[in-house]
């Protein structure tokens, strides 16, 4: 806007100075986990067929989705690292969220198939070689512990990495359940222990899959990041010295761990808009870890009109939004 009333656009990338090194390390840890899982999965399919164990075959299928999840995570990391280009002004950062959502969905779909097959085997249980199941499951626990350790070294703040990690952790639980089932079958001959173990793992898969879909869905719907309360944030911004009002406040995540904010800030007459903007950006960085903020900062008196004596700008304000005023900074805001 004219007459010396400014627009502010602030970014702070200091926290990402080592991002390239971290991303390379993440890829190395994920590649190690992928190799461990891929080699063991091939052997497990053979043993599962010989032992006629659904618990082992289902876990081999789960390990296949583990491998796919890690491979997808690696591809998404490559895409997300590409700089902005053309119409993709944020780059392809949300490729990681697509990967997380795909991982959650595959866990639920695989869980449905395993649940149906487990119920069928509860009704008509086949003979299961408990000794083979137990030995293979114990080896699988060791492999999955190594893979989970490798992936825990990567940045799990990324939903992409967390999605692949959840696949491996659920596979670890599956092997523990399979080992218990194998021991029960070996000692008692109770073959239904195999599908019962599978159903326990299915419940865990549903829980983890739903969590991933919900978290990635919030980002796609541009909900406020978990842990940030927009009304409280707006009230805090309105309490910054020299701020008269804050409206058109939007806070969302570009991708997991990268919150962004935009707002229109009205400043008292004669005050320094640039200093206020810098103060708000410091507050956002310090208290909310928001380093990508777009702030339109204007003098309230410049926007005042005869029919808008409070200084609100009818062209800039969101009619369905909320205004936060300095006089009510400590109280819950009310819709305008």
TrEMBL record:
Compartments it resides in: Membrane
Keyword vocabulary terms for this entry: Ion transport, Membrane, Transmembrane, Transmembrane helix, Transport
TM spans (from-to): 29-51, 63-81, 102-123, 129-151, 172-190, 196-213
Name this polypeptide is given: Cation transporter
GO molecular function, one term: zinc ion transmembrane transporter activity
Ranges of Low complexity composition bias in the record: 326-336
Entry GO CC: plasma membrane
Gene3D superfamilies assigned to the protein according to its UniProt record, in alphabetical order: Cation efflux protein transmembrane domain (1.20.1510.10)
Domain Cation efflux protein transmembrane: 30-220
Family, per entry: Belongs to the cation diffusion facilitator (CDF) transporter (TC 2.A.4) family. SLC30A subfamily.
Residue ranges, annotated region (Disordered): 303-336
Presence of keyword Signal: no
Chief location of this protein within or outside the cell: membrane
Listed Basic and acidic residues bias regions: 307-320
Signal peptide: none
Name of one Pfam family that matches: ZT_dimer
Species this protein is from: Dactylosporangium matsuzakiense
Membrane topology: Multi-pass membrane protein
Sequence ranges assigned to domain Cation efflux protein cytoplasmic in this UniProt record: 236-299
């Amino acid at each position: 806007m004219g007459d010396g009333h400014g627009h502010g656009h602030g970014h702070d990338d200091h926290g990402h100075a080592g991002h390239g090194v971290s991303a390379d390390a993440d890829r190395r840890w994920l590649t190690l986990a992928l190799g461990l899982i891929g080699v063991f999965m091939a052997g497990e399919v053979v043993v599962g067929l010989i032992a006629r164990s659904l618990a082992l075959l289902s876990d081999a299928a789960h390990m296949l989705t583990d491998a796919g999840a890690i491979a997808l995570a690696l591809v998404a990391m490559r895409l997300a690292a590409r700089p902005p280009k053309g119409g993709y002004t944020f780059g392809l950062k949300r490729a990681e969220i697509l990967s997380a959502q795909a991982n959650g969905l595959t866990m639920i779909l695989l869980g449905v198939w395993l649940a149906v097959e487990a119920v069928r085997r509860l009704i008509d249980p086949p003979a299961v070689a408990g000794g083979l199941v137990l030995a293979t499951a114990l080896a699988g626990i060791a492999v999955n512990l190594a893979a989970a350790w490798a992936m825990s070294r990567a940045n799990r703040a990324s939903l992409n990495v967390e999605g692949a990690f959840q696949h491996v952790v659920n596979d670890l639980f599956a092997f523990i359940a399979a080992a218990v089932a194998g021991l029960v079958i070996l000692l008692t001959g109770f073959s239904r222990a195999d599908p019962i173990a599978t159903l326990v793992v299915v419940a865990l898969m549903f829980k983890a899959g739903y969590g991933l879909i919900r978290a990635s869905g919030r980002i796609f719907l541009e909900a406020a990041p978990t842990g940030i309360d927009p009304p409280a944030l707006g009230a805090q911004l309105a309490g910054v010295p020299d701020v008269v009002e804050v409206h058109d406040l939007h806070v969302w995540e570009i991708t997991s761990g990268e919150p962004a904010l935009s707002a229109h800030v009205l400043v008292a007459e004669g005050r320094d808009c640039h200093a206020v903007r810098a103060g708000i950006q410091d507050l956002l960085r310090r208290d909310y870890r928001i380093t990508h903020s777009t702030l339109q900062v204007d003098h309230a008196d410049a926007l005042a009109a005869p029919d808008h004596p409070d200084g609100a700008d009818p062209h800039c304000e969101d009619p369905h939004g909320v205004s936060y005023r300095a006089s009510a900074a400590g109280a819950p805001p009310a819709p305008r």
